[in-house]
# Entry
Amino acid sequence: MKTLRNLFLIVIVIGIIIFGYFKITELQKEKIKELEDKIALLKEEHIPIRFKVSEKTDDSIKLIVKFYNADNEEINVMETKLPGQELSFDFYVVPVKDRYLAFPSKLFSNVIAASKGIELYELYDKEGFPGVFESKNMDLDLRKGLQDLFIQIKAGQIDSINHSFGNMVHDIRDLKSFMPDMVYSIVSHTKGGIEIVEE
# Structure
């Protein structure tokens, strides 16, 4: 009798977990759908990050990274030093309708694995909103949709976001490397693509 009761409880708990998972997935899909109606309001091109390598040796890279909103206003700055010779920025990209939303996620080098890199989300987190998308007079529904999506991404709830993927931009020492004292912009295109350009 006791075994039967325990089995029944286990089945109920598993049922609740499965129901909860599908409910969360359904809610996340609804939030993406709501974003689709407003996504055209975003600028097609913006610069979420500018950076400058202040010092580069055979075994380390020192740099200044600045974060910008969609109105090109500086929102945060970070100075750091990484071991290695090649610098990489990782983005988490979410396709919404015919646009792509790129969230800066990690900074790492050729001797630091991406999983061990510096997480960037907190550097542009403005009370739960992804500050790199901030713009004056932003539509409230678009703001709410971006905030909900950002919360999911930061919480690691990315399996339920359809067709999302990582995108890395970096330098390669044997080809063209980032030069000290040059300012570089990371340009995000909502039509697709992330590129680094010299300013």
